[in-house]
Amino acid sequence: MKKTFAKLILSIGICSASSFFAQENKNTQSVTGNFQIDAANYSKDTLIGADPGSQVVRYNSFGNVNYAYGNFTAGVRFESYQPPLLGYLPGYTGTGIPYKYARYRHDNIDVTVGSFYDQFGSGMCFRSYEDRGLLYDNAMNGMRVIFTPKDGITLKGIIGKQRTYFDLSPGVVRGLDGEINLTQLFNNDSDYVKNYRHFAYKVRRVPKKTFRGIKRIFNKNSLRDSTAYPNDSILYRPLKTQIIIGGSFVSKYQADQDPTLVLPENVGCAAGRLNIIRGGFNFYAEGSYKINDPSYQNNFSYKDGKGLFASVSYATKGGLTFLFTGKMIDNMSFRSDRNATNTIDMINYSPAITKNHTYMMMAYVPYASQMNGEIGASGEIQYKFKKGTLLGGKYGTDVTFNGSVMFAPDTTGLPYAQDSIRHYKYKVNYGSVGKEFFHDVNIEIGKKINKHLKFTLMFATQFINQAQVQYNTLDKKDHPDVHSKIWVADVTWRYKTGKAIRFEAQNFLTKDTVNAYGSGSWMTGLIEWTPSSNWFVVLADQYNYGNKDATKQVHYYYGSLIYVSGPTRITLSYGRQRAGIFCAGGVCRFVPSANALTISISTSF
Amino acid sequence: MKKKFLLLCFFLTSAFIYQSCDYVINAVPAGTASTGSGSTTGIIYRKVLIEDYTGHKCGNCPAAARELHKLDSLYSGKIVPLAIHAGFYANVTPTSVPAYPTNLKCQASTDYDTFFGNSTAGNPNGLVNRIGFGGAAFIKQWSDWGSSAYSMISMPADFKITISNTYNVGSNQVTSVVTTKALNSKSGTYNLVVLMVEDSIVAEQIDYSLPAGSQYVTNYVFNHVVRGAVNSSWGDQIIASTITAKDSIVKTYANFQLSATWKYKHCKIVAFVYDALSTSTTQYEVLQAESKDVN
């Protein structure tokens, strides 16, 4: 009896201890975060017209600290800009903690209070996000609830105000989103998924024959979430066809005190979406509708807004992938402050379908989504010529062909720029397009010659209607169209393990005047030396050799010394920065040229 | 039960969507727009100083000037408008094509623009009574000026400003006597700024609201242009710590020289009192403004 009792006590003890340690493991605490500071000391440079004024030292800095304990997470972000670096919106001048949150997740409920980022679908009605490089941050400050009543169904509710510099927007944003994975909902009941997972987990190392047996037992061929168990890909095959539908509704409230207009205080935006995935095939489409939303950006038009976005992609095992996208937007600027400009208080987002270039000259005259209206399409085909073939050579060859074209909508009625009534409505002729905004046709070839040498060659022909796209005017006399041809050669020579030299040569060829930067052609050269895995040295020069004014044929030289150790990166740079004019939604911002010594330090833990 | 729950969700969502959409049939308010109480009841109200930060090379700026004109008409006598020509878009470029040879900038405009950061934030924009310095809503788009002015137009004033000008045609000089009377006892530091402002200047302006080919306007009429500070950009301190109700401070600015290119008949003196205490949460806020023709 005593032995039995002793065994019982021991068993309870072991069970308790196991339970305790299991709980301890589940509720592990962790603190993570990252810090970054970019500081610059600006100098006067009469040749490029750089005059920083009295505030010669500027910096952008931030630090995130996140704490997690079991299902609970919380975090803060400290930011300081006193003042921000040249080129960023001066409204960010300040110091504070604009981002703080607490989140709890348990079973089918997920609640966040405080600051959060999220998006519904592709973001046509709601997208809250940050881009620290652009100093863009429209974080929501309020509350979010995500409810998953059943596998395959996700419901979201959000309410709050958006971040506006170190303050909050005057308008309140509230929204609902629902997403249903039909395949999951109707093909897999939750018990089946759980049982299958459990069983599959137990036998994950069994031979293929046994796996076939398991498949027969369950009479299914796949599971919902193959990414949840990446090591079990042999067992967790994706469903043959995934069909996901979703819908969202977002509304903003802003009081109307305008003495001359009756403004809608509640403005709603609705969107519906469909996503079909089968193997390498992916189709996504989303349509949106917004009611009358007169604002500074749409010149106080009371017309409704519409948007449509669709993309289809396919990837074959043979190395061929393609992606085609199409987009139509009319009057879809949606902000929590109807008087906001630049990138402030934007509630929604329009995915860019033009190529996001990384080479400087390729992105010299970039195109940004026109929320007042645009119609366009893009396509990209990638192919990898296999090793051992005529074009593939010893290591294979990557070829990417990309093209995109964007137009203004064809409208009947006064165009935006000619409207002084402030509340007219116009019609969009969907059967045709208006003036061309932009096109970009480019080809990129990547080739590894041997284990020491590889190169990338790129060529593009681009066009931009800078009058309409950047200056919101139809007058091309002051802002002529820019036609350009750009080529890039990028060669990397790895002369020893972990040591390399990379050369870049870029040429932007045009006879036209790019208003923001000056006229004529540019050339860029760059050398990047990697003497060890910790050190990088970069020397670059941009030269406006084609400027019709000989006094403005200036070199914009630049040099950097970079040290990397684990998560820590320190960059010391000196050089010139071009002046520019950035216009959006009827507001133009002049960013002065600069000559600066900069230091950037970032790390994470 | 599940059906009832779904039905309830559907009903609540529908109600939310219905309540969250205001369709506007007529964008123009019925009847006459409210212009605030004014001073009809015997109470002295604040006049609202609206500063339009602009430039002749800023194609979007004429829209702001039209809005300022509209508000000036709507709130007749209750608004003191200023056009601050400063920054890149106000630079004089006599040899450029098209040319902008007329200088509408002055030291005071540049001082304000540099300090408040208006042109860096993107033209056009403005300040309304300089309320909210340091906050996100300090710099306002022209579409927000009307709403902001509406919220201030009925606020009782703490000060009353009276301007008396004597113009000497022979010397082209003006002597201004500015009397600031405290309507309530106040503590704090307050400065008085006195500016020279000119209307009806005809010069070049780009206007994107006009059809292509005719956007460069050579005979554009500029109003409320700040020509310079009569005392200084940041003014004179008139109250160092406290002032008792009904006390007045009289400042005389003698023989301010007008430029030969200015037309004195189009010139006026604008004076305003602002909170100059560096530790104040309302620093730079304009508490009262007034204007008076030079002659």
Structural account:
- The complex is a heterodimer of chains A (about 600) and B (about 300).
- Chain A has about 600 residues and is mainly β.
- Chain A has 5 helices and 33 strands.
- Chain A has a 24-stranded antiparallel β-barrel.
- Chain A is globular and about 60 Å long.
- In chain B, a hairpin with a 4-residue loop joins strand 4 and strand 5.
- Chain B starts with a helix and ends with a strand.
- Chain B is built from 5 helices and 15 strands.
- In chain B, the strands form 5 sheets. In chain B, strands 7, 10, 11, 14 and 15 form a 5-stranded antiparallel β-sheet that branches.
- Chain B has about 300 residues and is of the alpha+beta class.
- In chain B, about 20% of the residues lie in helices and about 35% in strands.
- Chains A and B meet through strand 12, strand 14, strand 15 and strand 32 of A and helix 1, helix 2, helix 4 and helix 5 of B.
Strand content of chain B: 25-35%
What share of the residues of chain A lie within helices?
10-25%
Secondary structure category of chain B: alpha+beta
Distance N terminus to C terminus of chain B?
82 Å
Task: Produce the secondary structure layout.
The complex is a heterodimer of chains A (605) and B (295).
Chain A: H1 2-26, E1 29-43, E2 57-69, E3 72-81, E4 94-106, E5 109-116, E6 118-119, E7 127-128, E8 130-131, E9 136-137, E10 140-150, E11 153-164, E12 167-168, E13 172-181, H2 182-187, H3 190-202, H4 208-218, E14 242-253, E15 266-278, E16 281-290, E17 305-315, E18 320-330, E19 373-385, E20 397-412, E21 427-448, E22 453-464, H5 466-471, E23 482-496, E24 499-509, E25 513-514, E26 518-519, E27 522-530, E28 535-543, E29 555-565, E30 568-577, E31 580-584, E32 587-591, E33 594-604
Antiparallel strand pairs in A: 1-2, 1-33, 2-3, 3-4, 4-5, 5-10, 6-7, 8-9, 10-11, 11-12, 11-13, 13-14, 14-15, 15-16, 16-17, 17-18, 18-19, 19-20, 20-21, 21-22, 22-23, 23-24, 24-27, 25-26, 27-28, 28-29, 29-30, 30-33, 31-32
Chain B: H1 2-19, E1 48-54, H2 61-74, E2 79-85, H3 107-116, H4 118-121, E3 125-128, H5 145-152, E4 159-168, E5 173-182, E6 186-187, E7 190-198, E8 201-206, E9 216-222, E10 225-229, E11 236-239, E12 242-243, E13 248-257, E14 267-275, E15 286-293
Parallel strand pairs in B: 1-2
Antiparallel strand pairs in B: 1-3, 4-5, 5-13, 6-12, 7-10, 7-11, 7-14, 8-9, 14-15
